[in-house]
Every structure is written in C-alpha cells, then in structure tokens.
Amino acid sequence: xxxxxxxxxxxxxxxxxxxxxxRPHVHTSIRPLVFFxxxxxxxxxxxxxxxxxxxxxxxxxxxxxIAGERLQPVRLSRTAPVNQRYDFTALxxxxxxxxxxxxxxxxxxxxxxxxxxxxxxxxxxxxxxxxVRVLSLRTYRLEITxxxxxxxxxxxxxVPDTFSVVAANAREVVFQSTAQLELTLTRSTSPGRQQSxxxxxxxxxxxxxxxxTPLAKAFFENQEGEVTLEDLRVSGxxxxxxxxxxxxxxxxxxxxxxxxxxxxxxxxRLFVNALDxxxxxxxxxxxxxxxxxxxxxxxxxxxxxxxxxxxxxxxSYARVSYELVVLRPDGSDCVVIGEQVVCGAAxx
Length: 348
Known about the structure:
The chain is of the alpha+beta class.
C-alpha cells in the first residue's frame, strides 16, 4: 500500500496548517491558533475585571515539531487590547534569541539549533537547513530570550513515534455512502502513555465553489462573504481517542474517516496526526473555550498550554497522508434537508 508519508513534498500551506484551531465540523471557519490565543487573552482579562487601562500584553508562542520532517517555523507575537484589531505582523516580536535543543535521556543537551529571524516575515523564525530532521521518541526543549527585557520563554515536548498506512479500502469513495474510507495504520506510541490520540486534517486539492459539499456550501453561502474558499480549503476534526478506532489482532488500528472532515468533492489529501501530550492537552481543553461546555463566562478554565513565560503551544506530532477522490452520488448534487444530507435520487 502506497504511503505518502513524511518525506512526500506537500504544499507549504498544508505543512503550516496541519494543526490549526481544529473544530468538530467542516462548516466551521478555520482560524489560526495564534488568533484564537489573542482573543482568549482578551476574554480572560475581561473575566478578571481588569479595565482597558490595566491591559498588559502577553507573549504568544506557536511552534510544532513533526516527526521525521524538517523543523517548522516558530511564530512569536504579542496580544492586543480588546479595542484594537489583532494584526500578527504589527504585533510580531522580532530580534528574539530562539534555540531548540535535543535532549539526551539524562536531560543533558545533545544538540542545539539556533533559529534565526526570517528577514521578510516579522515574528517568524526559520531554520533553512533541509538536512535537519525531527527525531521521533526524543525530547526537545525550546528556549526563547526576548529582546530588550531578557525575559525567557521555554517549553518541552516528547515527539510521538512515526507510523504508516498499511492498508486502505478505497482510493475513490462516493460521498455519504455506506462504503466509508477506512485506513489501517501501524500504531504511533508515546513514552509513558497507554493510547494514542489523533486528529484528521483534510486539504482540498480542487477548492472551487462548485466543488463544495452540501454542508460546506450552506455555511459558505450563509456567511455573506465573511468566509472564503481558502478558509474552507483545509479543515480539521476534534481529537480522537481509543474509542474512535478499532484495534486489530496484529497490533494495527483501523480508523473510519469521518464525512464531516470533507468540505469539497474531488481530490483531497488527508492527514492523520498522532499528537504529543502538549497538543492533546491544548486541543481538548481548547474545545471548552470554543463553546463546547456549559460553563458560564466567569467559570471558563484556562486551556492547558505547557509553556513557561508565554501563552500558546509548543507541541509535536507524527503524521501520514493519503490521497482520496470524493465522488458525487449518482453523478448528482446532494442537498441539505433540515439537518440531514440527502444525495442521489432522493435529492431530486
């Protein structure tokens, strides 16, 4: 079975948006994690009773490591006050000293990489050496010294093990049919953890309006220009735990790919991501911030971030990808009737 895995070239957009602010349904607008953290910081300051004059900006960190792949960019900015529009470029932090260290089993530093400013991208720090690859099942520490003040930001991640697609039941599927795509995967393990946690991300390769699936089309049309096709081009799922997949006797697992993760008919590139503890904790606690609970505004707990000296996330994951063509049922359009998607002859 062909596995388009870690070394397969993919678009830069897919590399940098595999882990975004993931929502349960494809008809939810995709927003960058950094933007969410800015809004979250404002909401928490409001809950604390601080007035506009008491606002103190927080640093916001967004950085990920992908097992077996190149080092991804580090994004560093500051939050904005509630009456100011957030603009990453305007609030970007330049001139910081950013270092990533690979740690040995005893906690000592084995290798350190200095990550410089990207000259044409304020707030973005990149390693340009394509030979540097992230090692699975290893511990990395990110350390940032901020310009001017000398304040420090630090975080640690343990990278999950790589895994692969060993079988799939289709390269083409009919949308909303009972023959749902099933992927059989080797397990991705993480030290000290009994089970793996996954997310799905779907990147449409033909993101035209006429290719939208019914729910995505209804959402797109109802937003009156506030959501673009580019916003819908990459969509994600919530975190899936052991209850969402089937273990096999040979130690592999089989996952059914959810229809709600597909926003466009035609060719799609699917990513299955195995998360480290940092991303798992952040995403599951983040769902509370997105309205996934019954907490009143003053009782909403903070997300679990595992970052010292800043808001945000430094996490890691392993991933595999698989290309799939999603076909229209019977060559016809589907329609949304109430909360049901009806396709084929029943839609006419």
